[in-house]
Amino acid sequence: MEISIEKLNEFIDTITNYIKDVNKNILGTSYWLEKDYIDKLIEDLFD
Amino acid sequence: MNKEKWEKETKKVIEDFIFTWKSVDSLYVFISNLHYIKESYVETFYNIVNDTDKIYILDYLADMKNIEDLKYFMAFDKAPMFRNTKIFDDTSKAVNQLVNNTNMHVVIDSHILKALKLWLFDVYFLGIDYYLNEYNNFDGELDDIKKQVELYNSNLFKSVELAEIISRNISDKLKDYVYKLQRRAEELQDDILEIKSYGVSRDDYVSLQVDEDVLEVISYEIDLSNIIEEEEPDDFYF
To answer: What's the ipTM?
Structure first.
């Protein structure tokens, strides 16, 4: 079982793009993602 | 340097700033250039006012180093300690006030102030993106995660237990990394919102952005024709 660097980069992009989107829509949105959502993203890396 | 060349160079600095204010670095470029503008302003003020104590703000602008300085600067014209501060639309009026009003302590060109506020508003929109693009490695932590992934993929030790340990390590590091990203973004957001509270509004930004005359206003209203007579700055470099 492998984690491709490509998938890892996709993971990083997903997080950073979310934060950038929050920055653009500055009012009332939290930077903090649900823990379960992050766990699922990391779990998917190992699939 | 003669007066015409000085004015031309000064305009160029400000024009360059307007066209290159796309990143956090552009502030530092601008401030470092402002230092040289200041040198000439100070030279001029020395000649006319002969009172160095009245030129605080010009010194302060040139000495700004970080976002804390910027926040302080943005609030300066509202703070009680600066109740004798005035912002003028043109430099010759400012100098006249300095000469004729002994209670006046600080003077600043309103267009330089406007340019700085515009930059700060740019940070408001672009600061976090810039940070995420340029500094998302957190002193090599992202590189370290990638090395761990390479180790995991290589499966050098053919050990299931070791693979599990490495995968747990990768998971933990990724969670920590995501936490740091979010935490840092939140801190930057706090800084930016504080700056915004000092009176920079989106309406200001939009109206100035679409106004084609802004560049001319900022560049050409720094009119030194009534100030510099025969004296010229000695050491003024770009």
So the answer is: 0.88
